[in-house]
Design brief:
There is one protein chain. Helix 5 runs parallel beside helix 6, helix 6 runs parallel beside helix 7 and helix 9 packs antiparallel against helix 10. The protein is 34% helix and 22% strand. The chain has 2 domains: 100 residues, Urease, subunit C, domain 1; 296 residues, TIM Barrel (Alpha-Beta Barrel).
Length: 425
């Protein structure tokens, strides 16, 4: 008997992995050929990290080796902070996104999310921001809570529930028979009052932040990119104000002008995708420290897997355009956080994003910062994770080789520790 695309064996395997989750040792010394100080941009060689419970206590060429401490020698590897992906979709998998949300039940999609979370953790991503459950509502609250309670392995999560969209907007089931009343993959809001109502309900259901679709549908013709905005600056400002009232923030899917400008003026936390940013938008983002989250990997994947020649040409043209705009954003000092948009492409493979950030203009150390210290700041955990420093949570990974010399090393994670617990060794 099977449940969707998952067999009973797969479900049993998840339960077995949960039952066999390792207990956190009291004291551990990690030893490797190198430790990367991401904030200083320097390599310590050799390097050691002393972990007591769930916290880092010492970092250096050598550290104390307390009596009874376990020493883990990782050999010719580099230790660095756990990776952070600021744009993931745990409830999606490769295939037709619109059909997944219609054909697969919420319980089935929740199982998909649990398995995806494990894949991401094993690939070295110890913290993530889930940017919408695509119709699964608050199911990501359950997944986040189960991870936090140690019931399943997975990253630390910031979750949004469904994204918020306008009637007839980016995710509004356009193209289906209207008589069937196919539901959208997002929550509807058509004005500021409705935005506030939706945000309050989502926060009641456990969301950590709100995701809003601000632009779409994108078009690219004759070298010109365009995309309509969905919410006005005043409407976005109302959403930002409501989130801030309870200490939370708003992120937007915004690919181009004028929607990106409206979002920046409203004071969102991040502009995700950010294919096109005007000089004024970039100035505001730099001054307000609003992150751009480029998501190059999803564009590369769609270009490779496009079902038609026309769609493939569109995706390839868009990558060229976005890469040119990205270089302008780097020159303008726009803060960058790593986000891959994983889900439509296989979970656990999103370290490819680091390679593309470097390919399109970032230095390796800056790309790593985008997926560690910058990601921690965007998730609101800058005082907890993102660096290897005494007092921070022991979220630590090891990779083969030196990622400052070859950023592709981040695709070869061989050791994962989250909160002092070893998940991959």
């Amino acid at each position: 008997m099977t449940i969707g695309r998952f067999s009973a064996l797969a479900i049993f395997s998840v339960g077995l992995a949960m039952a066999q989750s390792p207990a956190a040792p009291r004291t551990v010394v990690l030893h490797a050929a190198r430790v990367l100080d991401v904030e200083a941009g320097r390599m310590i060689a050799p390097g050691e990290v002393l972990v007591e419970g769930d916290r880092i206590r010492e970092v250096g060429a050598t550290v104390r080796h307390p009596a009874g401490a376990e020493t883990i020698d990782l050999g010719d590897r580099t230790l660095l902070p756990g990776l952070i992906d600021a744009h993931v979709h745990l409830f999606l998998h490769p295939g037709a996104e619109d059909l997944q949300t219609v054909e697969e039940s919420v319980p089935q999609r929740t199982l998909i999310a649990v398995l995806a979370a494990k894949e991401d953790l094993m690939a070295g991503f110890t913290a993530e921001r889930d940017m919408g459950t695509e119709g699964a509502g608050s199911a990501d609250t359950a997944v986040r809570n189960a991870i936090n309670q140690g019931q399943f392995p997975g990253p630390r999560m910031r979750i949004s529930g469904n994204a918020v969209d306008i009637l007839g907007g980016h995710e509004d089931a356009i193209g289906y028979n209207p008589a069937q009343h196919v539901l959208p993959n997002a929550d509807w809001a058509n004005n500021a009052l409705q935005l506030v109502e939706v945000i309050r309900r989502q926060f009641k259901e456990g969301a950590d932040f709100t995701k809003i679709y601000e632009t779409g549908k994108d078009t690219f013709a004759n070298g010109r990119f365009s995309t309509p905005y969905q919410f006005t600056e005043a409407e976005l400002a109302a959403a930002v104000h409501e989130a801030a009232r309870v200490g939370k923030r708003v992120a937007v899917h915004a690919t181009g002008e004028p929607g990106t400008l409206y979002a920046a003026r409203a004071g969102v936390a991040s502009v995700d995708h950010a294919y096109q940013l005007s000089d004024e938008t970039m100035r505001i983002m730099r001054e307000k420290h609003i992150f751009a989250v480029p998501t190059f990997t999803i564009s590369e994947y769609f270009a490779d897997k496009a079902p038609t020649a026309a769609q493939q040409a569109f995706e390839k043209d868009l990558i060229v355009y976005h890469s040119q705009e990205f270089r302008k954003q780097l020159a303008a000092g726009v803060p960058i956080a790593m986000g891959s948009d994983v889900g439509p492409f296989p979970h656990g493979t999103q370290a490819r994003e680091f390679e593309l950030l470097v390919k399109f203009g970032m230095k390796p150390i800056d790309a790593i910062r985008a997926g560690t210290v910058n990601g921690a700041a965007l998730l609101g955990w800058q005082d907890q994770i993102g660096s290897l420093k005494p007092g921070l949570l022991a979220d630590i990974v090891a990779v083969e080789g030196d990622p400052l010399q070859d950023i592709a090393a981040l695709r070869h994670v061989t050791f994962v520790m989250k909160g002092g617990i070893v998940y991959r060794r």
